[in-house]
Design goal:
With about 240 residues, the chain is mainly beta. The protein has four helices and 20 strands. The chain has one domain.
């Protein structure tokens, strides 16, 4: 996605990067990449099923929000909700679900709002490069799978730039669960001690075989009703865990 103004991407099934992986395995692969063209592109990405394997060549993220030409004022502001991202093959333990570039100082990025998504697998389920100018809101997330890195990695982006709550983290991470600002290789208790996910959980969300909520899922009570968030943005969707 490239250009200016606002754009929507929704109700897509995105998969099968095989044609761009062989024979040399060197192509840059993403699911959705967003950047402006001499201005900020505001993208709303929702109700998508993105799954499979980006390959081992040059994968970035199943959703990648970045900027275009350096120094021309391009950028992105992404709202990402009600998506199911499932990494398989190489992606199951090596790729990123969401990837957010840092600004180069002239291309504005963010804010980023991330609601009601389910992520299965990946090395980093949410990866953000270091940037103290970008704000993130992460709510009603289900992070699943024993990957090779963290659920959330913000590098040296300050914790004050992140509002994370009402999320479920289940399955473990081999390098520590959280790494953002002052939290390095932190477990869930460290994360909550830092003021994040005070209403979150590490309970099994009890998803079915297609990664949807079941009637006895604890996410039904942990998730927040986010209709007020969307009322402020002019959208009509009633977003809570029961809708997913």
């Amino acid at each position: 996605m490239n250009g200016s103004g606002a754009s929507n991407v929704h109700d897509n099934d995105i998969s099968d990067w095989t044609n761009w992986q062989f024979p040399k395995n060197t192509y840059h692969t993403d699911g959705i990449i967003v950047y402006g063209d001499a201005s900020v592109l505001s993208a709303t990405i929702y109700n998508n099923y993105i799954h499979g394997d980006l390959g081992a060549g040059s994968p970035t993220g199943f959703i990648f929000c970045t900027y275009g030409v350096q120094g021309n004022g391009s950028g992105s502001a992404c709202t990402i909700y009600n998506n199911l991202l499932v990494g398989t093959g190489f992606a199951s333990t090596n790729d990123q679900g969401l990837y957010f570039h840092a600004s180069d100082g002239t291309n504005p990025l963010g804010s980023y709002k991330i609601y009601n998504n389910t992520f299965v697998g990946f090395a980093y389920q949410l990866y953000a490069e270091s940037d103290a100018t970008i704000d993130y809101t992460v709510e009603n997330y289900a992070f699943l799978g024993n990957g090779s890195q963290w659920y959330i990695e913000g590098n040296n982006t300050p914790l004050g730039n992140l509002n994370s709550d009402h999320n479920i983290y289940f399955g473990g991470r081999s390098s520590g669960s959280f790494s953002w600002g002052s939290i390095s290789n932190g477990q869930f208790s460290d994360w909550q001690d830092a003021g994040e996910d005070l209403n979150g959980s590490i309970a099994d969300p009890n998803l079915d075989g297609t990664h949807h909520l079941t009637a006895n899922s604890p996410a039904l009570s942990i998730g927040a009703n986010l209709s007020s968030e969307y009322a402020r943005s002019g959208r009509r969707e009633i977003l809570d865990r029961r809708c997913q």
